[in-house]
Amino acid sequence: MLRWLKILPRLIRYGLPMVFYVLFAYPRKDKNSRIKVFRKLKFYLKRLHKTLGVKLYVTGLENIPNEQSFMITPNHQSLVDGSVMFELFDDPLAFVSKGELTKVPVAKQILGTMGSIFMDRDNLKEELRVMKKVRKSLLEDNIKWIIYPEGTRTKDKDYKLNPFKAGTYKFPMSINKKIIPCAIHGTERLLNGKYNYKVYPIYIHFFKPFTKDDYKHLTTQDISNQCHQMIQDKVNEFIEFDKKIKKN
Questions:
Q1: How many whole angstroms from its chain centre is CA 110?
Q2: Helix-, strand-, coil-residue percentages of the chain, each rounded to 5
Q3: Which pTM value belongs to this model?
């Protein structure tokens, strides 16, 4: 509680203008306005993260392709996973997000303005409809898509990943788009009251993309299993590194 009281003035300084912008002042959804909105939100989120004590440790940025359209598949620990991604890109990101977020006004507006899609995770027909939209967007729009193959946040105390949904990889593979596995660790602590750090380290690693040549002989289950193992191993590395950081 004391931590939140100390940073409250800064939260108001950067948080309220962002909320106002998202709810009332953002431009209509077209290509140019989407870029403008994304960069404006990046400005606010970067300062909010700094206010909250976030320190990013990012590796693998050299693995991000130059082209505009590809898919990133991170593990999922917290709502903060998406917001920290804003800091790392200059052009719009879109997310496939759980339908429950439509009940959160600011989150709904931010994601909706970016062209993100909300999905009922328990409805197979809805899932297929959404993934077809993502496929079409990957073909036609200059947007980077972020999809969490776990489908929900990791709740395991040892950060054991949930099983990945192999269908996540079907549509980018069918149109030969690059797939970038991504490992994230530390985001769940930022909004958890049991942690009271001055600095909240968050670790992100982008792996080398899977290209058409990499997955042309793989099934969606094959690539899903490979990505799961790669990301789990990297999260385990982050956990050990985090222990050393906290000791120093």
A1: 13
A2: 55, 15, 30
A3: 0.87
